[in-house]
Design goal:
The complex is a heterotetramer, with two copies of chain A and two copies of chain C. Chain A is α/β, with parallel strands linked by helices. Chain A folds into two domains: 7-30 and 299-408, Aspartate Aminotransferase, domain 1 (Alpha-Beta Complex), CATH 3.90.1150; 42-297, Aspartate Aminotransferase, domain 2 (3-Layer(aba) Sandwich). Chain A has helices at 7-11, 39-52, 62-82, 96-111, 130-139, 156-162, 185-194, 214-217, 242-247, 282-298, 300-321, 348-357, 370-375, 392-409, and strands at 20-21, 24-25, 27-28, 90-93, 117-121, 142-146, 167-173, 198-202, 221-225, 236-240, 258-261, 266-268, 326-329, 338-343, 360-361, 363-365, 381-385. The chains are: A alpha/beta, C mainly alpha. The interface between A and B is large, with 94 and 94 residues. The complex binds pyridoxal-5'-phosphate (2 copies). One pyridoxal-5'-phosphate sits between chains B (95-97, 125, 127-128, 173, 177, 202, 204-205, 225, 368) and A (255, 278-279). One pyridoxal-5'-phosphate (PLP) sits between chains A (95-97, 125, 127-128, 173, 177, 202, 204-205, 225, 368) and B (255, 278-279).
Chain lengths: 410, 410, 141, 141
Amino acid sequence: MNQSIDIASIRAQFPVLNEQVNGKPLVYFDNAATTQKPHSVINALQSYYQHDNANIHRSAHTLAARATEHFEATREMLKLFINAKESAECIFTKGVTESINLVAASYGKLVLKPGDEVLLTEMEHHSNLVPWQRICAETGAVLKFIPVESDGSIHLETALACINSKVKIVSMVWVSNALGTINPIQTIIETAHGIGAKVMIDAAQAASHFKIDVQALDCDFMALSSHKLYGPTGLGVLYGKRELLAAMPPYQSGGEMIKEVFLTHSTYNELPYKFEAGTPNIADVIAFKMALKFVSDIGHDSIASHENSLYHYLLNAINHASLKQLKLIGTSSNKIAVQSFEIESLHHFDVGLLLDASGIAVRTGHHCTQPLMRKFGIDGTVRASFAIYNTTDEIDYFIAALQKICHRIK
Amino acid sequence: MNQSIDIASIRAQFPVLNEQVNGKPLVYFDNAATTQKPHSVINALQSYYQHDNANIHRSAHTLAARATEHFEATREMLKLFINAKESAECIFTKGVTESINLVAASYGKLVLKPGDEVLLTEMEHHSNLVPWQRICAETGAVLKFIPVESDGSIHLETALACINSKVKIVSMVWVSNALGTINPIQTIIETAHGIGAKVMIDAAQAASHFKIDVQALDCDFMALSSHKLYGPTGLGVLYGKRELLAAMPPYQSGGEMIKEVFLTHSTYNELPYKFEAGTPNIADVIAFKMALKFVSDIGHDSIASHENSLYHYLLNAINHASLKQLKLIGTSSNKIAVQSFEIESLHHFDVGLLLDASGIAVRTGHHCTQPLMRKFGIDGTVRASFAIYNTTDEIDYFIAALQKICHRIK
Amino acid sequence: MKTINEIQDEIVADFSLFEDDMESKLFYLMDLGKKLEPMDSAHQTPEFLIKGCMSKVWVYPIFVDGILHFEVDSNTEITKGLVALLVKIWNNRTPSEILNTDLYFIAQIGMGNMIGSQRSNGFAGMIQQMKLYATAFQSHN
Amino acid sequence: MKTINEIQDEIVADFSLFEDDMESKLFYLMDLGKKLEPMDSAHQTPEFLIKGCMSKVWVYPIFVDGILHFEVDSNTEITKGLVALLVKIWNNRTPSEILNTDLYFIAQIGMGNMIGSQRSNGFAGMIQQMKLYATAFQSHN
Ligand SMILES: Cc1ncc(COP(=O)(O)O)c(C=O)c1O
Ligand SMILES: Cc1ncc(COP(=O)(O)O)c(C=O)c1O
């Protein structure tokens, strides 16, 4: 199904790609931090505020009905996008970070007993680590880690060996934001279910690159961020299986999430509203639908194929350029189009600034994975991460900039 | 300082006011639910996504630096807007609901002991009630309520009498969203401080109507929502005094809010970042600055004066129209421009639909204040709430629509 | 007795008189509701409440001699008018007549536009419940 | 020895050669950093670290015969170049010379544009700390 796609026409949908940075055309290779937004998303925001803006649910007026309808339409689209059984299993949050905090605080607190284990990997983003540290400290459960190998992958056998009967929750990143490694979550989910553990998947980096099917995966929870998926900032998703979500206590409380409120006690609303306290991020939810549509219209197969070919082009180009001072970090064979690296004798931060001088945006630093950096004995990397609108021309330009830098510091 | 303002030119800044609803020009009287957004806010969103979009903080590239600068500029503006001592006391949240949840979960859990009292009023929005019910249940503290009188106000003496030495936290609404009543918070704050209690103010309904000065009030915490203040949805503010925020444990955890992360433990970032886990709602924060600027440019005095005159015009018009079936709910003399009412023998919901048929948007229902409604022996009201862009012409049209309804059901 | 479709056509004709005047359509609905036979309050129990409605709507079925009869009520006038429309069409029909109905009048009077999508869901809930009763009594027969 | 302003003028002239070539400006800064005398690693302690910098920058003051001398270092090359600029201007000056300096070169070379606002804050932190040392030794005198 891998039709060739017209990248020029895709680029034309992203106004920010016309920016000049330091007098050079912007080359945006910081997509793992946040993707750019197509016209359709920006226009949806504008159109909502120009025509429909109103607070949603339980209201008698037309604008509110319109806003409610559009808001819930995103949930329906999301259900299709991740193939959830029902849209009520899709909860809107602020982002992956909040989705994980919600599960740790609500589900973690519900099930974890002293001595129970929560299993993560050593490559987790802080957002999938610190919430578990805190709930373990509160409940007396113990954090365990699947180790990361020197190429930035995990060994499946080692991982499966960590899944013992004490493990109650496995929470792991599908794709590492720092290294790009794709983890073998399907087998881990099956094995975890075999001993009765539940599995939460951090899909922050996965969602824009390949198709998600929560029913096929059979994961128990999954977290997504809109802003990494061509959508607006300030919005995320928690997917959870109905029976789990239904049994969990609410996380935040207030308007929308209640059924009946008395001065001294309250009863709670149905899913998904039970977990959506307060006025939601209405405009961004509505615009997020256009981001999902953007990805679906191109198709995950085409996206993966374009990004993979970019990635191989990059690796090839690095080899041919014989950049001796350049050291790749994260060299697993199963990766998305993300490459971390160091340049010998130059701080990652300086490399970032020098590339920026050429208009190239990369991320530098620990990528919110300090324990992983420590494992590699470094305090950060330079990371280039690609999206559907990137091109081989941009990679050529990037390689030339790296050559110039390596040449200057010889 | 009360210059007369040009409402026509203000209306021209709000594109949504050109909408037609059921063939009639939109009359938007649902401002207490959410206000409309001026061009400047919508344009700021668009411009951010078209030119600057990047993940913020700790980055080497130009877009990220630009986004970070704009993001923090809103915090500086906010500090001026509420007259905080420092911008680090202004924390970005999802909205008032999250701000209150944060304080209840973090500060509440830190200080509340069995038998301690948390004092609210009977007119709280569910968002300032349910979080306290839950933290009281968890800590063994007891919820107490300042009673609401039949005109929808609280008696200051009765309120002060509730503040005994067991009270550790007073959390109350400054302005009732259901009734419009302005509460005497200044004296309550002073009295509460006299016995060592801390005071949280729910300023959801206050912020767009009159000037806020947290230092003059000396409140300990205050919550705001952007969407009720001419700004984007999905964004709120928690103000807190530095010494309190500094002593509080983090609420959510993950990226941004950490200093150093090890596999087994972490240390936390400085204020305000300690309470801002995950990628923030960057675009909406940046656009929110234009909302604050919109309000500041007109000036709170001018806003209050316009809205007060609208409100008196409304009360006068209701009197003259002799709408016998109409019963006002919330008749205190100290109110903002919000009026709840019932029409005899008609459900509030039907009134809402009938007004909508004339293009008039009002809110109907319990306004997330079920205990207050129960106190009045009703299950909801029709509520008209005004903002700076409303006019006496709109009120005339509204009164005519009410007359028609009352006439038909006679 | 008129056929189901004759009644639907009448409803469509009535609403078309109001053209774009939404307010009059709502008043008309309210008038329909007022003309309903009063419901036995003993039948207004939670089990006869329609799920998914923002207002309270009770539908109580009575099945005699192969014919379905509905007692209905609502706590809001407009919703009462909505359920009254269905009663107008479906009262004193056989289950199979009910189950075989194509409710084309809904689209033709522009119901979605008139009551919004949330109330449309509630309206769909009423239809579904009345059809469920029809199915139940049909198989019972 | 050149005056402070003569050195500032030289810096401005040097940078103006690069026109809009940001990359060359950064390489130039890095070269400046490389030419710094090495800092005694015993002086690279937390108390001599500049607060508010994203990189690590140490500034160690030595005050002899009324003259201030700075040992500096950084873990990143560009930041080292930044602090080298200040050393170029302020090394071997009296506290009052330092305190009376108008650092006009910063605006003239378009520093803000070159290093962004966050690093500009760090740079401001270096300046502030060096001036604090000057104040301290001046009153000490
Ligand atoms: C008085 C009051 N408190 C709290 C809230 C909750 O605000 P939000 O829904 O923006 O979190 C509202 C808004 O409905 C309100 O009016
Ligand atoms: C793998 C991974 N997990 C979690 C997060 C946190 O996402 P957010 O900051 O949108 O909450 C990120 C984003 O930085 C990520 O890449």
